[in-house]
Amino acid sequence: MSSRIDGEALLGKLGDRFSGLRGRLTPNMGMEKVTWFRAGGPAEVMFQPADEEDLAAFLQAVPEEYPILVVGIGSNLLVRDGGVPGFVVRLSAKGFGEVERVGDTQLRAGAATPDKRLAATALEAKIAGFHFYHGIPGGLGGALRMNAGANGVETRERVVEVRALDRKGNVHILSNADMGYAYRHSGAAKDLIFTSALLEGTPGETYEIQAAMNAVQQHRETVQPIREKTGGSTFKNPEGTSAWKEIDAAGGRGLMIGGAQMSPMHCNFMINTGTATGHDLETLGETIRSRVLQNSGIHLHWEIKRLGLFRPGQEVQEYLGQLL
Questions:
Q1: The pTM is what?
Q2: Neighbours of 92 (CB within 10 A)
Q3: Does the annotation mark 220 as catalytic?
Q4: Are the beta carbons of 231 and 241 closer than 8 angstroms?
Q5: Out of 32, 228, 286, 303, which one is annotated catalytic?
Q6: Number of domains observed in the structure of the chain
Q7: 233: domain CATH number?
């Protein structure tokens, strides 16, 4: 298939395959509308399925040679300016955002459930152990894929099982062990699209859970640029240290390239000050990685997920090796 983004042509070629779908297909969908960075090129075709059955039908209809990527709330995505070829699946809250109590200490939630809503539902059900989600700006699908965590708790501590669809639309039920969790990582097959999960906490009292959630919120407001256009933590914490400490020591706090800046408040947060392109953001990130490598010998690894194609002549190489 061509590397040029042309959603109208793609739908014109494959449109008959999608005649029975109930979800929405949108050609050349601007990803700046759905990512928290508010930057980047278009998705060649975006599909928002009505529900899991509709998603399965879509997956069965797309020929194997066309790539399919799934996104959620878009809080930790950096989309390159050349756009995302093939199909981007975006799970909506309407079809995948339900969360319900299914036992004394268990919740079943759709992959598009906002993390904050998960925490609020657990509070209402008096289930402890979900307070950390109150401080994670994302959705459950991303949390499952990246083993999202905060305040000393990780997603893997809550997962009982995960429901997913493979590239052919087949249903899979994955146990906690099947997910292959590590720090900010899941070993589950990359082509699996998570649709829901069964999660478990512990019995708790409302006042204790609320106090824990309040502490999470106070911490975020004090040290994180939560009102900026940001993707959350940019880099994973290296073993034995914190990414922000290494960035700070390398002179990265407040560093700007184009409209992209490492936050002066929390220098492991990259922000779009208003005019940043995907190229600005990724160039800044790789410049920071280069500075830290030169300063301390530490290799920072991206926590933000980067998608799509570079514009011709605007490729960004890993570890730029230059101090800007």
A1: 0.89
A2: 16
A3: no
A4: no
A5: 303
A6: 3
A7: 3.90.78.10
